[in-house]
Amino acid sequence: MDINTHSTVADVATNLPATIRVFQQNGIDFCCGGKRPIAEACADRGLDADVVVGALRASVAGGGPERNWTEAPLAELIAHIQARFHEPLRKELPRLQAMLAKVVDRHGDRHPEVLPALQETFAGLQRELLDHMRKEDAILFPAIVGLEADGGTIIRIDAPIHVMETEHEDAGRALARMRELTRGYTPPPEACPTFRGLYYGLAELERDMHLHVHLENNVLFPRASALAHST
Fold first, then answer.
1. Is 74 within 8 Å of 219 (Cβ atoms)?
2. What percentage of the chain carries pLDDT values higher than 70?
3. Co-location of 91 and 173 in the same domain
4. Are residues 100 and 161 in the same domain?
5. In a shared domain, residues 25 and 104
6. Same domain, yes or no: 162 and 51
7. pLDDT one-digit tens code per residue, 113-127
8. Three-class SS of residue 37?
9. What is the pLDDT of residues 91-112, one digit of tens each?
10. 19 and 79 in one domain?
């Protein structure tokens, strides 16, 4: 689908859910008030329509391949994890929570077998992830940075790593449950743009969590543990 200033907001949001973040960031109604051209919506918000269209196109353009982190300094890998996953996740979880509350309020009675359980599962996942990242940022990650700086002489990290890996497993079960409830994040045919955007956002959350956990479980933690036992 080509995105231009004449495209309607609702059509773009419905066909290209990745654009929803851009609409939200700019305060553009893509749901009930979305059946109007982007140019008109931008004019009402005092926005440059060409700039917004550029951001919308960029949101669906995709990115390059992930860097190989198996040989980078651990401190650099940790900084990447925090910037690429932790910081965005702290913003994305409340955004998805708000969208989910809106969808449950408007459509929960028509999908009682899905939406209440989805909301409950997501709420638990959100609590666990926020606590999990807090512990990593405050305790484990500084310990690993110190371990690398000290050459593995004094710091013991096996126990906290085990705790983090167990919590990763818990998060994986919650993600699997949400995928099961939504039948692979497939919105019902009558779903509004917010409903579709929610499912797209949850699918992206799952995708990012898989990358996130991979970098920690399979790259960061084994390297840090090996360093801790190297002396």
1. no
2. 95
3. yes
4. yes
5. no
6. no
7. 999 999 999 999 999
8. strand
9. 999 999 999 999 999 998 899 9
10. no
Query: Tokens in use for 96?
Result: 């998805």
Q: Are residues 91 and 153 in the same domain?
A: yes
Q: Look-up: residue for tokens 């951001």?
A: 55
- Contacts within 8 Å (CB) and 24+ apart, 69-78: 69/215, 69/219, 69/220, 70/219, 70/223, 73/148, 74/144, 74/145, 74/147, 74/148, 74/220, 74/223, 74/224, 74/227, 75/145, 75/148, 75/149, 77/215, 77/219, 77/220, 78/141, 78/144, 78/145, 78/220
Exposed/middle/buried for 224, CB within 10 Å: 0-12, 13-18, 19+?
Answer: buried
- SS3 of residue 8 by DSSP: strand
Averaged pLDDT of the chain: 91
pLDDT at 229 (0 to 100): 81
Whether residue 109 is found in the same domain as residue 215: yes
Per the structure, the count of domains in the chain is 2
Range of the domain at 23: 9-59
> What are 57's two structure tokens?
């196109």
Per-residue pLDDT tens over the stretch 39-90? 999 999 999 999 999 999 988 886 555 567 888 999 999 999 999 999 999 9
Residue 163 and residue 92 share a domain: yes
